[in-house]
Structure formats: C-alpha cells, structure tokens
Write a structure and sequence with these properties.
The protein has five helices and five strands, in the order E-H-E-H-E-H-E-H-E-H. The chain has 125 residues and is of the alpha/beta class.
Length: 125
Amino acid sequence: MDQSGLRVLLVEDDDDNRELMAEVLEASGYAVLSAASGQEGLKTLSEHSIDVVVTDVGMPGMGGLEMAKAAKAIAPTVPVVIVTGWAERDDIARARGREVDAVLIKPVDPDALTSAVAEVLRARP
C-alpha cells in the first residue's frame, strides 16, 4: 500500500513516545498530525481529513477508549488503533471491533506500529 498522502492522527500524552511514534510513521511515508490529549485529538480530527487514528489508552482527562468512541462518532469509517500496557482489560476487549480496530501493546515495536496502521487501512470500507 502506498502511504504517501495518508494522514495519521497520533494522540499520545507522553512527549517522548509521541515523538518516537511520529518518527516511525513518517519514516514509513505517512503524514502525521500529533495531539497531546484526547480533546486536542478530537479537535484535530474534526478539522482535518484523517485516514487513521492511533491513540494511547492511559491519558489524563479523556483516555484513549473514550477518545476512540468519540472519534468514531465524528468519523465512523476512520480506523482507530489503541496503544496500551493493559491488554487484558475487559473494557479494551469490549471496545475491540466497535470503537477499536487494532490494539498494540507497550512498549510499541516500530514494525508492529507500521504493520497495524497498514492493516487497518487495508481493511477499512
């Protein structure tokens, strides 16, 4: 899949993690728009054409699962990938397939990140 021109909205409250993931995605050819909170991410999503959302689960204020649900309300066909250290939580399992299209476990492997983004983009309607 040609990633050029595809926009990833990256929502991560940790500056170092956000910068690292953005670099990985940009090196794979994606255009990355970054946000440091769920609220900022939703604002970006409502103002820009986004192809996929990647969001951390554990953020202060609006967490990633809440952000994913709100993102699907704004842009129902945009896939959402969540990044978490808590893969076994029931709320994550329930969200998968509805608000969440893929789950990545921290620490995020760069190849897993780019593979997950490419996979959800291929699967979108």
